Amino acid sequence: MDMLISSFLDIAVDQTVDTAREFLQATNWNLEEAIQRFFSGNNNGATAAAESFNYSPLIENTPTLREWEDDDDDVHLPLPVRREVFYGENSGLYEDERDQISSSTFDSYSNNALSDLFRPPYEFLYNGPFDHAKEAGAKRNKWLLVNVQSRGEFASETLNRDTWANDIVAKMIENNFVFWQQGDHTEEGRKVCTYYKLDSRPVILVIDPITGQKMRSWNGMVQPERLLEDAMTFIDRTPSEYHSDLIRKQLERLTHRDRTEESSDTNHELKEITEETDHELLIYLPLPEEPNGNSICDKNLVCRIAIRLPDGRRIQRNFMKTDPIKLLWSFCSTQFEEAKTRAFRFRQAMPGPTKFWNYDSNLTFEESGLDNSIIALVMI
């Protein structure tokens, strides 16, 4: 019994022996149940202890009362404690009698209290698949804030209790983000973990809803103050403003390059290209991380594209089937030098009717029929 009391006090920090004994006696000396009841009814100090201490291994390795009895025949179940304390002036019930009356409803109350304490932020949670949440972010011109949780990590629960329940954080999310939360045990959760190569949970991501690019990530429990401070970058600029700034900076770099080269021919070529393509030739979507597509599950979500370049080389890369084919231009502009300054498109490389794909297409890889295809880059 002393070891059970000691184990209780290791978890419920700064509590007294009397408190430990009271909760253990009330639960027939079941350490796990005693801890759960203590945390559900003592939120002032106990929640901080729960957040900083993982008590599952301790409970698993602590002998139960029955195991103590097997080792020592002199150990017996404790007798109920009768305290001469009244509940209310006219209740007429002693504490042990009241415990007997309320014991049938205590577990239900505790479960409801814990459920309310760690509930997800349904008030501002986007309900739908990840791709739909991304589309909603693009339509509303708001960043996509993603939280992938895990049932086995207590930090997932504390994020719900402390961070998402914070009034200031909630207001920030409602004004600036589309918030999407999912468990890693669900199909949608696994899809996001695969695409963004997430190896720890819980994790928080800021996603560009226009390109799907991961802009920022946090792992584990993130306190409200830190999240508010780190998210200021995304509060100051909407996704469309971010892309406008990106285009402006790229044009400035091109202009600076031309000036340093002091080549009038180069300046003339840049002007012609910019006028003909309305800047689309030079400004491509940011290229997200490449999905690996190793597992069977991943292969259902990922496609591989092989591209023949004008110089005879053949390059290839994985894309998500839901990605826009515009990312082909982003990829090739990093692999083929001439593609940085000249317009190009793609042609079907296999025998058959000639088919072209241009940059103005808004199709995904799955919609375009390019899934696991070989295509050729053609300069215009």
From TrEMBL:
Cross-referenced InterPro entries: Thioredoxin-like_sf (IPR036249), UAS (IPR006577), UBA-like_sf (IPR009060), Ubiquitin-like_domsf (IPR029071), UBX_dom (IPR001012), UBX_domain-protein (IPR050730)
Keywords for this protein: Ubl conjugation pathway
Domain of life of the source: Eukaryota
Domain UBX: residue ranges: 298-378
A UniProt-annotated Pfam family: UBX
Protein name: Plant UBX domain-containing protein 7-like
Organism listed in the record: Solanum pennellii
Gene this protein is translated from: LOC107027895
